[in-house]
Protein: Cytochrome bc1 complex Rieske iron-sulfur subunit
Organism: Mycetocola reblochoni
Amino acid sequence: MAHDDNSGAELAAAASSDHGPENNVSTGTAVVANDAVENPGFPPHRQRVTDLNPKKERTAERTVYTLFYLSIIGSVWAIAAYMLFPIEPENLLSVRLNNLFIGVGVALALLGIGIGAVHWAKALMADHETIDERHPVRGTDETRARAVEIFETANEESGFGRRTLIRNSLLGALVAFPLPAVVLFRGLAPEGQDPVALLNETAWEAGTRLARDPSGVPIKASDVTLGSAFHVIPEGLSEMDHMLEEKAKAIVLLMRLKPEDLNEREDRKGWSYDGIVAYSKVCTHVGCPVALYEQQTHHLLCPCHQSQFDVTNHCAVIFGPAARPLPQLPIAVDDEGYLIAQSDFQEAVGPSFWERH
């Protein structure tokens, strides 16, 4: 019995030693968890040079409104460049100059506003730390009164109502910078012509041969091997009036698949030739050139917004923002073996517009 009592005492002591550290650890953990982290507060405020030196403040103010005035000059220059450097038919240099000078004006207009606003905020607006207290979102009288107070404080801190040169130059820049876009969009519609009719018609007509882009060399059906893709324009396009405008609507991608891979509708079975099909390159989303052909999947990809079209199913949309299939150009072969168009596209190419039939 004595041996048993000693064994029981040893077991009790062992149990006590086993649980002791655990209790100490858990107690220590509880003490640490209850220790609150002291709020360090805001770091010492560092005043800017414009806060300390009135001369520097006036220099910063002059810099800001000068940038806003430069933005106005850029907007006016973009409009003037549109008129001074018009695009002339068959003159690629005029296209480059037009794009260059208009782009410089628009860039100056946008950069002037952007850099001026950033410099205004960093150098002149109030520079002190605040605490944004969380509170319930309610439309009470107190909330509305506080909103008015915030706007008044923001006006005072930004100096919008007090710094009249900055305010007026900013308003002038904001009014001026959209004007180049208005003028440029107006020039998209040819004067004296119906834009709806122009968008519904292209340079393709019955008997026009398909030619390589940009060489203009006609394409024979035997040239189009299985799995190949050709960038195509109408033959004689370079001799047409308004060549660039006509090319923008008439560009085509020509591909050859196995005839059994084409799932053609009954009314379009005569639009292809021995597995050769032709589709407009103008994406039906916003008009980007669809020029990437995946030979194995038979998919066409628009690089701008990743719309994908299935060539085996009349270029139906299988992915992306495009809402309609690419228009198909009906093709055939003439007596000399050259690929020709049976007619123009049966629908308007490119993005949708209000008067689209």
